[in-house]
Design goal:
Spore Coat Polysaccharide Biosynthesis Protein SpsA, Chain A; seven-stranded mixed beta sheet; 11 strands
């Protein structure tokens, strides 16, 4: 059995209520739940939340909310891993331990059903499969603002290396993580040798942590929808 778990706590300081705030006409969490349902990958789609309003909105979108997340897992310091392990323990106690679980963030409106299907297809033989995207600029050329607001290179030895000669780097797309139940429970690291990357284009990856991010994400989403 495969389960989709959508973590969606009630509190958010930088963008208040972002998990259920209206994004391009729907509560944000609806986009993730709908992508999960459309993918056909899951026998169950669960939402882990401490907030009754979020729970009601999730149920209206077709997800299950079979438990209330404890306060110890609903503060700013709670990790994704701890939230997933709590859900797996709940399912195990109910006699419904899944073989695989996909943790899909509530604030991932750009995720597509085919991305989730690709993740499932890539998982066998690995601990995790997760989406990544390429940095738009060589990370070896990164700068910092030093003392007296002086601009400095993080790696001055790369100053004269041509950008095309620098190794390309990728980063976590921050949308979802497919994993086996054993890998989640054993606290195996995401960035180890048994993690399969799923490459996404940069234009479908957008963090939504500030109001500026939100405005940019809605503009991009509407532009992409208009193309369809």
């Amino acid at each position: 059995m495969s389960v989709c778990l959508v973590p969606a706590r009630g509190g958010s300081k930088r963008v208040p209520g972002k998990n259920v705030r209206s994004f391009c006409g729907k509560p944000m969490i609806h986009w993730s739940i709908e992508a999960a349902a459309e993918s056909g990958c899951f026998e169950r789609i669960l939402v882990s939340t401490d907030d009754e309003r979020t729970a009601a909105i999730a149920r209206a979108a077709g997800a299950e909310v079979p438990f209330t997340r404890p306060p110890t897992l609903a503060d700013d310091h709670a990790s994704t891993l701890a939230v997933v392990r709590h859900a797996i323990d709940f399912l195990d106690a109910a006699g419904a331990l899944p073989e695989t679980l996909c943790c899909l963030y509530a604030t991932a409106p750009f995720v597509r059903a085919e991305d989730l299907r690709l993740g499932r297809a890539q998982l066998p033989g690995w601990d995790f499969a997760m989406p990544v995207t390429r940095y738009a600029f060589p990370i070896q050329r990164a700068l910092r603002i030093g003392p007296a607001r002086r601009l400095e290179m993080l790696d001055p030895e790369r100053y004269e290396v041509r950008s095309q000669d620098l190794e390309e780097a990728v980063h976590d797309a921050g949308q979802f993580y497919w994993g086996t139940a054993h890998a989640w429970r054993d606290d195996r690291p995401f960035f180890a040798q048994r993690v399969r990357p799923i490459e996404l284009p940069r234009w479908r990856v957008q963090d939504i942590d500030t109001e500026e991010d939100w405005t940019q994400a809605e503009a991009l989403f509407r532009a992409l929808e208009g193309q369809g």
